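Course exercise 7: structure representation. Students receive a sequence record and must write out the corresponding structure in token form. The form below is the worked example handed out in class, using SSCRP protein (148 residues). Read each field label carefully; the graders check that inputs and outputs are placed in the correct fields and that the protein name is recorded exactly as given.

STUDENT ID: A-19
EXERCISE PROTEIN: SSCRP protein
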Amino acid sequence: MKSLTPVLLLALGLITGSTAAPLEERDVQTVHLTFHGGPAEYSLAFPADGNVYATNSSIAISIIDAPDFLALTQCTFITSGEKTLASTITAQGLTQILVGPPQPITGVSCVGSCIYTYGDCYRNGQFLGQCCNGFCAANKCRPWVSPY
Ligand SMILES: *[C@@H]1O[C@H](CO)[C@@H](O)[C@H](O)[C@H]1NC(C)=O
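STUDENT ANSWER:
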């Protein structure tokens, strides 16, 4: 039987409004994003723990590189204006989020998980999860474009 302690800690965190530590740290993936606005860019690396991470940048962003996370569906990008997000894949096989109209992104939060390239997406006939930046074939996550 599972210990109740983490559940109680989470409940207390919710009651006090503090940011509770994730229950299973080992399962929290690190998200790497690179934000592009014209010739300017910045990169962030942060845990997919549901917390909001400030970008501290006022650059108007039009493209976000998402090499290792399902950012379109599993991340929230905070802006002051209305926006439409779409996803595309570059000729090099990199997943990018397109932001329209371009605008500053003040913070980002991500939650969940995905399978890294060449990780198992199926094992013993069981689906293990969506690929972060590619597709599932022959039980493994494959890059969108073959490097060979
Ligand atoms: C943004 O600023 C806050 C407060 O100074 C700091 O904790 C945080 O690390 C900064 N984030 C980045 C991406 O520099």
